[in-house]
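User: Is it possible to get a 3D structure for a protein together with its bound compound? The compound here is magnesium ion. I've pasted both below.
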Amino acid sequence: MELTELVKESLSTLALNKLRTGLATLGIIIGIGSVITLISLGQSGQKSVQNQIESLGSNLLTVEPGSASSGFVREGFGSGTTLTHADANALANSSEITTISTVSPELARRAQVVAGRNNENTQIIGVTPTYASVHKASIASGVFISQRDVDASTKNVVVGPDIVTNLFGEGSNPLGQTLRINGIAFNIVGVTESKGGTGFQNPDTYVYVPLTTAQSVLFGVNYLSTISVEAKNSNVMTEAENQIGYFLLARHKINDPTQADFSILSQSDILGAVSQVTSTFTSLLAGIAAISLLVGGIGIMNIMLVTVTERTREIGLRKALGAKRKTIITQFIVEAIILTAMGGILGMFFGLGASFIISKIINLPFTVSFSSILLAIGVSGATGIVFGWYPAQIAARMQPIEALRYE
Amino acid sequence: MNIIEVSHLSKIYKNDSVETVALLDVSFGVKKGEFLAIMGASGSGKSTLMHILGALDLPTSGSYILDGEDVSKLSEDQLADIRNRKIGFVFQAYNLLPRTSALKNVMLPMAYSGVQLAGRVKKAEELLKIVGLSDRMYHTSNQLSGGQQQRVAIARALSMTPSIILADEPTGNLATTQRDEIIEIFQKLNRDGHTIVIITHEPDIAEHAKRIITLKDGKIDSDRVNGKKLKKLKLWN
Ligand SMILES: Nc1ncnc2c1ncn2[C@@H]1O[C@H](COP(=O)(O)OP(=O)(O)O)[C@@H](O)[C@H]1O
Ligand SMILES: [Mg+2]
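Assistant: Yes, that's possible. Here is the predicted structure of the complex:
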């Protein structure tokens, strides 16, 4: 018998008992559905994190205070006080360091920002003019913090677009207006372009003040929280990392690199950490997938065993009329595959729908990957073969005489 | 040449330590075109013999040659092939596929032998016409009377143009009028040259056969040509 005929026959057999067919596929629908949902959300999440990291600048090296234990690679978060504005200037002006183009000294702290009756707790960053080019921050209106602002410790401030919306109202022009940070009045001179960021580290919510003002007026410290360095290009990242590292070690009079009082992170370190998290997440998903498909598959096997028992006489008759073992096996496996493939396809639509809705709710980009569609169909089909195998074997092993006699 | 050649056939069932001798040293031949009835009391070995003749089971000893092929030593799939090509079964309980049209039921054995769909449909339509069901081809089995179902089963038995038609109590579940219809069909098929073996415990059914073998305790008790003049039955339809 041809396969198309067999498929048609199986479909009409399955149509005879729609409720049972529906319930049998439910396990697979839920299994495949949740796998597709999780994978699709995982991929969207990964993509959004990657975009965010890359939008920070791909040639970026970040020097942070605090101890490191191997080379210059940082081991934990420190809130050290070992990096200074002078370190940053020395880096920028050094003739030994050939691989870097721009240095941005920064001091970031969270603080309360007030305008009129509105207030918000947000990230305040003390910057110099180089910040804008290192972090790809562009100005939508007004100007960015200038060298004059830094030299004179002015009380000029540049804000992210979300701050404008939250404190002054959507679409309003905040230039020239007053903003209070920790009770001190600042004059708004610029608004940054939206980066469309999401999540905890969203540059659209940042408030930028001159570095010297942040250090002496706002927070009363003389150190930096970060020195961001832009390398000349992405091929010299490792060299730049080493040059900066040895330069700062020498400046800090430290001989042993393992005793460094700072650490250097590159974009690839961060991406590496993210992809490690992602791959852990992916194996977790694979585990969930395996379990849910196992449960779904057992459901299919159960239904197929019931079907085989119920149709003992039919199987006996088919064998009496000349059906070979292989024919019977094929018939029941095709039935099982149709059950699971139907479940897989329905589950896929269910999963794509669910991930679409969830990604809209939590504001992630929605991505449909071709691989997840292949996975849904492939895995559900394979489940049919695996869990239809045993019932089909039982059917094929039946003796026609016994089966015909079966009541 | 005999189409069935059975010699020294024995079947012994072994369950645990109990041995039941169902057939003992049975030998006979059936010529092409014969109409044979196998009779006997309950437990005399009729069904056992029918299973062996139908290639559904193998004998313990002895040989069975069907249409020139030794059936007693074949594998399961080879037996399936023999059943498909050489034997047309008619069962007491009709055994049609449930909720499947008469046409599809008749087509089933041809599907297993790889006949193309168009050829199957054509042959099935012809056969249903022969058994008088050309107006019932698309009725499903549960929409047909017992007699009609058995006629579908006969059409199915003919679909592969088998060497023998093997019927086990084919009228056992039928009312008298439908019984006569079925017997009439068998007689007509026999007149057209088909070899028919009917197993029955009802003497008035056996009386329509040309030859009657009677079994007793697994052995042939008598093997006689049925001399009685055939009873004239009314035609169906
Ligand atoms: N599967 C079996 N296992 C054991 N004994 C059997 C089996 N089938 C039939 N028998 C025995 O073989 C003998 C012949 O049975 P059977 O061929 O069914 O007779 P009939 O069909 O003439 O009534 C009986 O004694 C019966 O009990
Ligand atoms: Mg019997």
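The longest helix of chain B spans residues 176-191. The domain at 2-228 of chain B is CATH 3.40.50.300 (Rossmann fold).
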